[in-house]
Amino acid sequence: MASLSLRNVVKRYGHGPKANQVIHGVNAEIADGEFIVIVGPSGCGKSTLLRMVAGLEEISGGEIAIGSRVVNQLEPAERDIAMVFQNYALYPHMSVFDNMAYGLKIAKRPRDEIRARVDKAAKILELSHLLERKPRELSGGQRQRVAMGRAIVRQPQVFLFDEPLSNLDAKLRAQTRIEIQKLHRSLSITSLFVTHDQVEAMTLAQRMIVMNAGHMEQFGTPEEVYHTPASTFVASFIGSPPMNLLQHAPGVAPGQILGIRPEHLDVGPDGWDVAVDTVELLGAERLVYARLGDEPLIVRIEEGAPAPRSGERLRVRPRPDRLHAFDAASGKRIAAPAQP
Ligand SMILES: Nc1ncnc2c1ncn2[C@@H]1O[C@H](COP(=O)(O)OP(=O)(O)O)[C@@H](O)[C@H]1O
Ligand SMILES: [Mg+2]
User: Fold this and answer.
1) The whole model's pTM is what?
2) What HEC string does the chain produce?
3) Could you give the domains of the chain?
């Protein structure tokens, strides 16, 4: 096992004036055994970053170290990493056992060792009873576990996951998330997990890297990212529905943006006077889509509390200790929020 260091990592595709820079100096010190999620919208550079760690993409600038070893110049096979992709093609004509054993056979490990490693991984992944089956005889979730098994048997220093759950349906995705957490608890292998799904990121990460257009916007625990987003980008990307961002609410200082999450607005006899557009029923809660002046505002109302109807007006009060302030020009967080 090993720590992982990204030091001012840069990626450019192409050369000279036509070069397209897609990663802009990412710095992250990841401790041995940490589970890190890289999250951001499609095209922000998540896969590129992961592929540079894996050695599948050249590094244009900066340094990547696994443990104390700088790996910039090392071939993928020399980096002691294992990667699980979204499209984890299994060999269709091979059994589950042979699929999991394949990498070890290529590496010419002794038969007894291969048997032992595959059996151990199969046990962890609850695949022991399926080892003789072919991939076509498995469910989607089981196939995904075989793909993870293939990575586990390598006993790598670092696990890399690139959106491995994207092809699963919602229920299976939630189950597999729990399995990945269990797996990490039992193996404690340093892991980098890429996803565009902020729920996946929040539930899996010990710490998360939020990426936006090749920049690292924030690196912190899910709590830090949720409670003290470093920018309006993070504030609106993490959390569903996103944080309300208001420039014209009462009391907002010029040049600032006020942030308040939908769950931190209380309906009451006084406060902001908002116009209700629509109300969405989501089981345990309702989302009220409203307008404060000309700015959209989402209010979350708990089950049981009276909900307004569209066309009505509503008074809402932001909880003072839950306000966020951002600089309107840069989008960056301002330490002391404005008090409306
Ligand atoms: N081989 C390539 N050549 C040129 N540009 C690329 C290449 N691969 C990715 N890109 C560009 O790099 C950016 C980041 O891509 P990627 O890392 O795949 O994003 P993500 O995984 O976050 O969706 C995108 O703008 C993409 O078009
Ligand atoms: Mg990708």
Assistant:
1) 0.91
2) CCCEEEEEEEEEECCHHHCEEEEEEEEEEECCCCEEEEECCCCCCHHHHHHHHHCCCCCCEEEEEECCEECCCCCHHHCCEEEECCCCCCCCCCCHHHHHHHHHHHCCCCHHHHHHHHHHHHHHCCCHHHCCCCHHHCCHHHHHHHHHHHHHCCCCCEEEEECCCCCCCHHHHHHHHHHHHHHHHHHCCEEEEEECCHHHHHHHCCEEEEEECCEEEEEECHHHHHHCCCEHHHHHHCCCCCCEEECCCCCCCCCEEEEECHHHEEEEEEEEEEEEEEEEEECCEEEEEEEECCEEEEEEEECCCCCCCCCCEEEEEECHHHCEEEECCCCEEECCCCCC
3) 4-233 (3.40.50.300), 244-334 (2.40.50.140)
